[in-house]
DNA sequence: TTGTGTTTTATTGCCTCC
DNA sequence: GGAGGCAATAAAACACAA
């Protein structure tokens, strides 16, 4: 009975041959009749579902090793007894109808030419009007519904491809933006470092100024005292502040005083020109803030 | 040969439009 | 309410590696 195994990818023809060989052996062994009717009955007994997979005539011809085709079907059956012929007809009819509707054929792929014609038609217009559907169906020997289904599935495939294309475009745009963002981030970092260095220079300049003032203080004190003696309204103190604007004790220099100090020290030739130029430019653009040096947040990620 | 993944054909259920 | 479109899915056919 190992012969009767079922395999989904096993062809019906091969299986019929195997069954036939097995039946012949079985019949010989048990002295059973070896007529074609007996073989088919035996076959149907063992494989009641098989009558749906292949039509009975194919099975019968296969079992009898006499293949028949199309118009010869009735002729092939003429060799059967009347009762058996009637049974075949009855089974054929049962096989053709199920719950009042026709049993559908097994799923068949469209031929190359059919697909080519449908593709051509789809390229012209991916929507199918009833007239075109009927015409195409007639030309290709298909059911109008098959044509409609093909167009429907083709539209779905086209849509999927289109989505993939759109995605790849968006992806490449995103990659470009990301590279630009990384460059800007790097630039921002460089500028931040540069600003920090400038700030340190400013503080260092202030310290140097304080030291130099300490050295000059006895002279100025004498001068101040003399001036205050001659003029008691404090004008001289202002003059001394003009000479050294950064030296206002106890607070950081204001931006205007920093500029004045730069001009002052430039006249003496101590800070370098580049430093002054950058500093002035930042001052003009209101970029400079003593407590905050970052140009923009680096935490902000690029978005499309 | 067989298991598995992909493609193609077909069905079902829902929605929109006329 | 019927026709047609669409998304989700089933199932058969096919391709291919092991």
TrEMBL record:
Bias (Basic and acidic residues): 214-227
GO CC annotation terms, alphabetical: nucleus
GO MF term set: DNA-binding transcription factor activity, RNA polymerase II-specific; sequence-specific DNA binding
Keyword Coiled coil: yes
Homeobox domain residues: 101-161
Source organism superkingdom: Eukaryota
UniProt similarity note: Belongs to the HD-ZIP homeobox family. Class I subfamily.
Ranges for region Disordered: 214-237
Source organism of this protein record: Psophocarpus tetragonolobus (Winged bean)
Upper taxonomic lineage: Eukaryota, Viridiplantae, Streptophyta, Embryophyta, Tracheophyta
Coiled-coil regions listed in the entry: 167-201
DNA-binding region: 103-162
UniProt entry keywords in alphabetical sequence: Coiled coil, DNA-binding, Homeobox, Nucleus, Transcription, Transcription regulation
Role: Probable transcription factor.
Name of the featured protein: Homeobox-leucine zipper protein
One BP annotation, GO: positive regulation of DNA-templated transcription
Localization per record: Nucleus
């Amino acid at each position: 009975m190992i012969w009767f195994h079922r395999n989904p990818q096993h062809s019906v023809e091969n299986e019929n041959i195997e069954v036939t060989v097995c039946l012949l052996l079985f019949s010989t062994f048990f002295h059973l009749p070896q007529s074609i009717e007996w073989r088919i009955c035996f076959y149907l007994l063992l494989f009641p579902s098989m009558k749906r997979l292949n039509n009975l005539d194919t099975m019968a011809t296969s079992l009898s090793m006499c293949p028949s085709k199309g118009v010869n079907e009735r002729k092939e059956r003429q060799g059967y007894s009347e009762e058996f012929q009637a049974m075949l007809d009855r089974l054929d009819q049962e096989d053709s109808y199920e719950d009042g509707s026709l049993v559908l054929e097994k799923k068949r792929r469209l031929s190359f030419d059919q697909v080519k014609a449908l593709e051509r038609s789809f390229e012209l217009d991916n929507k199918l009007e009833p007239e075109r559907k009927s015409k195409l169906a007639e030309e290709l020997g298909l059911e109008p519904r098959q044509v409609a289904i093909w167009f429907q599935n083709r539209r779905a495939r086209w849509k999927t491809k289109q989505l993939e294309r759109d995605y790849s475009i968006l992806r490449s745009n995103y990659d470009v933006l990301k590279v630009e963002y990384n460059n800007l981030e790097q630039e921002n970092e460089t500028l931040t470092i540069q600003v920090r260095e400038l700030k340190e220079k400013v503080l260092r300049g202030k310290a140097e100024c304080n030291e130099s003032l300490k050295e000059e203080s006895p002279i100025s004190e004498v001068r101040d005292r003399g001036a205050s003696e001659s003029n008691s309204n404090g004008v001289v103190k202002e003059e001394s502040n003009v000479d050294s604007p950064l030296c206002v004790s106890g607070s950081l220099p204001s931006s205007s005083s920093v500029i004045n100090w730069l001009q002052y020290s430039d006249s003496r030739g101590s800070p370098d020109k580049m430093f002054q130029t950058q500093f002035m430019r930042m001052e003009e653009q209101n970029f400079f803030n003593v407590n905050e040096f970052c140009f923009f947040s680096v935490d902000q990620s690029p978005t499309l």
